[in-house]
Amino acid sequence: MSTPNGSKTKLPALTLAALGVVFGDIGTSPLYTIKEVFSVGTHPVPLTEANMYGILSLIVWALIMVVSVKYVAFIMRADNRGEGGIMALLALASHNAGSNIKKQHTIMLLGILGACMFYADGMITPAISVLSAVEGLELAAPILHPLILPITLVVLFALFWAQSKGTALVGAFFGPIMLLWFGTLGVLGIQSIMQNPSILHALNPIYAIHFFTVSPWIAFVALGAVVLAVTGAEALYADMGHFGRYPIRLAWFGLVLPALILNYFGQGALILQHPEAVKNPFYLLAPEWMLFPLILLATLAAVIASQAVITGAFSVSRQALQLGYLPRMHVEHTSESQEGQIYMPRVSWGLMAAVMGLVLTFKSSGNLAAAYGIAVTGDMVITTLLAGIVFHNLWGWSKLRTGLLVAMFLTVDVAFFSANVLKIPDGGWVPLAIGIVIFTLMLTWKTGRGIVYTRLKNEAMALDPFIEAIGAHPPTRVPGTALFMTPNPDGVPHAMLHNLKHNKVLHEKMVILTVRFLDYPHTAEEERVKLEVLPHEFYKVTVQYGFKDEPDLPRDLQLCTEKGLVLDEMDTSFFIGKEILIASGKSGMAFWRKKIFIGLFRSAETITNQFKLPPNRVIELGSQLKI
Predict the structure, then answer these.
(1) Short-list 233, 271, 228, 201, CA closest to 54
(2) Distance (Å, rounded) from C-alpha 574 to C-alpha 440?
(3) 375 and 435 in contact (C-beta within 8 Å)?
(4) What share of the chain has pLDDT > 70, as a percent?
(5) Which one of 161, 417, 452, 453 is CB 3.0 to 4.6 Å from 377, fit for a cystine?
(6) pLDDT of 339
(7) Beta strand 538-545 with 572-582: parallel, antiparallel or unpaired?
(8) pTM for this one?
């Protein structure tokens, strides 16, 4: 897949759009990476020429190994019908697990952990990006220092407030702004490099090797800050479905990578000539007259980086919801033409509260940097492990070939992760705490749903004998169609039994309706609906959605007409079982987790809203269920 629809004519537009969405996070890393290494870090590296050459060499080869080789050359090939991202990779890795419960469970746990790290990253990225951009005010006008936090909070609030309005209008400006941003990065870097061209010797990996040989502990600790240069690499894979591989690769190799390298080396050259510039080398690259315009441009770039992460959080949340890892939530579509542009109020406001809490707690980008690396490197490790499963099981690679490649990637990933473990006391515990909370909620929801489904299935009457009994002793049949929604198509829905017990009637047409979410992104219209005709005017209908499809049952049930079942929307009623859960002491889950699951169950969005059912044609029949 070079471009969506295979159209080369759209390549320039797609490349510019990818520039605006995909590279915001990694593009704002020069704001704080070098500063974190030498100046404000929790374990600053002594400023010497040898150390500077070693750090720059580590940064450039981290960009090459992690982004260019791992993500661009390999991970982006592991697409799930064109879609990328941790949940798509989880679904892809699950394909060949089959009935191996242990393997399924391991893959599921890895996927949930990866999603948790993504959410933690999504909370820290807006905080550190916007804060580091606004901190430039301290250089331009030191008197404005007390306003840095308030301005940051206002920018963040405006960003999250605008989410419900949609990103289509603002998105039109993202590409040109990021084009200007990366052009500025490159020009500022070149001007500084021209003052000290010998800094380019650090492109040689021998300097990174020498750094580790001479100062192994300092070099290892420095990896905790060097990894900041590759934050956002996962966005290349996550946003692949929107733009395709080729535009992302073209933007990366054609502009982003050269601009980043030039800027990092420019900062290095500046610091070696003027060591006092280490306090904020990015902004000090610019002439004094350019500071305020650069601060404004950096803030816009930080907002774009934050927007990409927030949009990614919406996308991952919807995928997780439809794969059964999160409870139903309200999803709003902010564009009539672009399906992927969605807004999830609960996710948005939760993220905003977390991001503002981080800004108020840590107060500076330097302090936040200590919290940043754990989430990013944890996600990198999990992506490598899941990709290894795909390489071997789906692509048919030998164990040796897969093992060598995965070992190479893991060596880099684990080195970065281990260095960031040292930062846990200084703030690295924050993403871990966030991850543990989200992991507990997601695993509890997934496990709880399994328990409820098993209980309902075990208690359900088999459908075929029930239909035979109806034929032998037919109750009164009333005009119209009744659709009974159930996750178990082979059992009699509880709502049907309740209706028959209390109302003593059945409708003319009785439809057992099951909705399934598949582990690939989209289903074609011809495979969306399956129909099975049963005796005595009973029907089984299965509606299938991919994890990125928009559920709309009234629309999709019209496809039954082509298969011989005509459904008149005004003469059709939807019967839904509404379970009232009660926690019991029986095994299955710890009691406290059952209480959490029940709370999530009660707060979930209604089935009526999730599947766009007409509210005046929905009938809910309740029952109690002990879990």
Answers:
(1) 201
(2) 34
(3) yes
(4) 94
(5) 417
(6) 53
(7) unpaired
(8) 0.82
- Is the CB of residue 413 less than 8 Å from the CB of residue 120? no
Structural Rg of the chain based on CA atoms: 27
Q: How far is CA 550 from CA 87, 227, 516, 522, in A?
A: 17, 37, 13, 9
User: Residue 336: is it exposed, middle or buried by C-beta count within 10 angstroms (0-12/13-18/19+)?
Assistant: exposed
User: Is residue 141 helix, strand or coil?
Assistant: coil
Q: pLDDT tens digit string along 183-240?
A: 999 999 999 999 999 999 999 999 999 999 999 999 999 998 899 899 888 878 877 7
For residues 507 and 484, give the distance between their C-alpha atoms in angstroms, rounded to a whole number.
11
Instruction: Return the sign of the alpha-carbon dihedral for residues 404, 408, 410, 414.
Output: positive
CA distance 321 to 445: 10
DSSP secondary-structure letter at 80? B
Rounded-to-integer distance, Cα 446 and Cα 326, Å: 7
In the three-class reduction of DSSP (H, G, I as helix; E, B as strand; rest coil), residue 515 is classed as strand
CB contact at 8 A, 516 and 490: no
- Rounded Cα distance between 625 and 627, Å, is 6
**Residue 549: how many CB atoms within 10 A of its CB?**
19
Distance from C-alpha of 418 to C-alpha of 9, rounded to nearest angstrom: 45
Angle (CA) 493-519-589 rounded to 5° is: 60
Distance CA 374, CA 213 (A): 25
Residue 62 CA: distances (Å) to CA of 105, 255, 328, 409, 543: 32, 17, 39, 11, 46
Give, in order, the Cα–Cα distances in Å from 144 to each of 148, 151, 297: 7, 10, 18
Q: Which of the four pLDDT bands, split at 50, 70 and 90, describes residue 1? A: very low
Rounded Cα distance, 421 and 444, in Å = 27
